[in-house]
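#onboarding

Welcome to the new folks! Below is a worked example of what a typical request in this channel looks like: someone posts a single protein sequence, and someone else replies with the predicted structure as tokens. Don't worry about understanding the tokens yet, we'll cover that in week two.

Example request:
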Amino acid sequence: MSIPSNSVLTKTQAISPAAIDDFELAALISSKICHDIINPVGAIYNGLEVLDDDNDEQSRAYALEVIRDFTTQASARVQFARFAFGAAGSAGATIDLGNAEQLSRGFLATHKSKHKLTWKVPAGQMAKNRAKLLLNLIACAVSALPRGGEIVATVGGKLDDPNIAVRCIGPAARPPQHLREFLQAPESHQVDALSVQAYYTMRLAKSCGLLLSVGMEGVDVLMSASR
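Example response:
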């Protein structure tokens, strides 16, 4: 028995941004997180079935390797989601940027090393929502580099009033899926489990009082958030 990888995402109904309340947003984010971990969880389940049913040593060794690999992937994605979407501390809390770097590297490693992270962020603590904005921009950068590449995360200025930038460098770099559409015409672009990451990133920038922009700079994609 295998677990279908698309069972969550394909059943999520698109909603107009004007119609989204906090309950709908929470439901869409939950759907996205479930979708992000269903593949590794399904692979772990299937690997356990092999261990139960197959006595061939080579098959069992391969199953254990698969289980270890996808357990690491699931753990990295859940930990990243906890900080990128979750509370990760009490209201008004800050997030350690060293921890944010570790979470980002773990998250990108689940994409089979197609994406390299260059971290140009000073050590220290940053307000929770601004650190979450940085994490979500890094997640959006993955869709900006469909063939892989370098993601350069930069925080300038003071950490209590930062300028945040994420540059995407690589072949076929393009503005991240859905984010530019929400910035250009937020009321005309539908929100579903595929686009909720971009919608939430836009909402985070607004909550921080930062102007979010996305565009091409030469052949690179640049996402920036500043006053």
